[in-house]
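Thread: quick sanity check before group meeting

JM: Hey all, I'm pulling together slides for Thursday and realized we never actually wrote out the predicted structure for the chain we discussed last week. Dropping the sequence here so it's in one place. If anyone has concerns about the input, flag it before I start.
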Amino acid sequence: MKILLVVPAGERVRVTHENPQVPRRALQRFSVLPLTVVAGLTPPQHTVRIVDENVEPLDFEAECDLVGITFMTALAPRAYDIAEKFRRRGKLVVGGGYHATLCPQDAAPHFDALVLGDAEGAWEQLLADAQTGKLEKFYRVSAARGMEFCATADWKSALQTPTPRRELLARTARHYATLNAVQAGRGCRHACRYCSVTVFHGQTYRRRSVADIIAEVRGLPGDFIFVDDNIIAEREFALELFRAMKPLGKRWVSQCSVLIADDPELLSAARAAGCSGLFIGIETANEANLAAMNKQFNQTRSYAARLRRIRRAGIGVIAGMIVGMDGDDTSVFEETLRFLEQTQIDALQLNILTPLPGTPLYEEMAHAGRVTDRDWSHYDYRHVVFRPARMTAAELQAGADWVYGEFYRLDRILRRFARSIFTIDWKAALLGLKLGLTYRYDNQREGIIGWNPRARLNRPAATPCMDCVPATIS
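JM (edit): ok, ran it. Output follows.
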């Protein structure tokens, strides 16, 4: 079979035949690991092509027998549109990814079949059934299939996955920060109420063997990124991995919890292994918000000291922050900006609280009648889709946009760059500079400005001009 694998893109960043210009935001793109892995799972008698709409147009007249589409909630409408167009041509269309897994009844009408959960084991069975004309509606790896694929009785904690077929992206490689995306483990054992990763993986964590990871990393032609949600999810595994990586002399970035700052041995090992930057989900400086989201381990009172230790180790910090939690009023925007400045955060990903379907947060808000927008394309962390508790939706939207615009002002970007040269190292500082300019470009391209709701609330009422006061009749 000829198989076409597709990554949908949002309307603002989608490359089409009518609009072929690729937005200059390569630093926010790093491979498309899920589909390169799916390609690696595909038996060699099939041919595979990958199209990422973020960097090239999708040809709906492409010659293919089966189309596979992976998507998160915000891209569900586009995924459904793509599926419909190919099904009109009589092509088999398969969906997978987070939204398909967490909302199968929403996705099912648009596809001939869905892969629920991880692809390993399920994808191979789907292809075999498609060839014999016995395609089922849903495919999910079973215990038997998991043991067969992983070749170990402990398949629920082990992760065995093929080498990604990165060569399939060679023609568009210049549009990515790197094609060298590596995954050491999947899932997360924390139970944050807003997080789809926890639900998707059933609050479990599975990891590959250190030997397999080192073999893959050694073969990469340069530096790389670990796409793990928490690279330190298992301390002893992470320590073993970092020690094995040290002789390779490579540089890498990843994601992890702020807890790495509490473990000097682990932090030092990560740096010695080549870690130059970490995305850390700080989320909020409000202790009550963290408790409500079941993320008390972040401990806001120790943020400053923890982040200082990470940066002193020579590792830059990209902070994930959320605004719009129930403990937030309009003061949160100024407070967030002040916190980012005081803790010397190198880069920021600011999210508006988004109740993703399938998460406990969504169920809670939907039950309370607080979900106000069910247009999935707005579930991109940049739109308000619920009724906030202590401000209006307009104030939340404006304030979030204002924080983004203020943090990525050119003078602030340059000041952070100058500071980072002396507090981390010049390569990490340069990465932070490039990332800051990329986010600034995005903000300007999308017209994100916003305003500070607290400043408007505190603005004194204007004294009326006497010439404008209407005369009264005595």
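AS: nice. Residues 95 and 114 are 5 Å apart (CA to CA). Confidence is low (pLDDT under 50) at residues 143-153, 460-474.
JM: adding both to the slides.
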